[in-house]
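Hi F.,

I've been meaning to write this up properly since the lab meeting, where we talked about keeping a consistent format for the predictions we share between groups. The idea is simple: the sequence comes first, exactly as it goes in, then the structure tokens exactly as they come out, then a line or two of notes. No screenshots and no reformatting. I'm using this chain as the first example so we have something concrete to point to.
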Amino acid sequence: MHITQLNRDCLLHLFSFLDKNSRKNLAKTCHKLLEVFQDPLLWSLLNFHSPVELKKDNFLLGPALKYLSICWYSERVKVCNIEDWMKNSFQKDFCNRHENTVSDFLLDVCNRCPNLLSLTLSGCGHVTDDCILQVLKNCPNLKSLKLENCVRITDHTLEAVTLHGGSLRTLHVDFCRNVTQAGLERVRQKCPSVMLRAERSANMIPDSKPEKKLMLEKASRRLVQL
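Output, unedited:
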């Protein structure tokens, strides 16, 4: 029996075991398999392991998407997640190449995936509070928001959760160094039903300008002298 002789349900089941590239390659072989590739039922879950993958055409975004994960585990994450003023010209050039990649993708998700239930971002150093705010506004059914090592996330995101995260049940802001204890307490008070986790976040050193760091160092030296 040839693969194209299988009914649509069987083909969808077969496609579900394939990664995005394999699905795309199989879809190129004939019109029938292309139709299966374009079936929304196939795209309720998307996992990405690099911002580069977001620019490929081997997946579909649509109302069927329920679970989205973008986890960037690489040595390059350390470059994009350090403070901007500490980066050398080479590092800045590297980061600028994909600074808006994840944010632009998430804005596209806001416009096309209103039924999103779960969003996980890890190591996405360029994602901002405004981007998460737009997700919360445009995806009212979002139940799980997990952010890890997203260094531009601040208490503004936590405030957005209290205002627009009515369906949210899980919130992780682990290793987000610009989140404060006060912001976390505000979420606990206003959203008691949300399972909140913030490993290391409020205990990490937040971003600050060089002038502020210099002032702190001088103050520390004076205390030592006294």
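Notes:
Confidence is low (pLDDT under 50) at residues 210-216.
DSSP finds ten helices and six strands in the chain.

If this format works for you, I'll send the rest the same way.

G.
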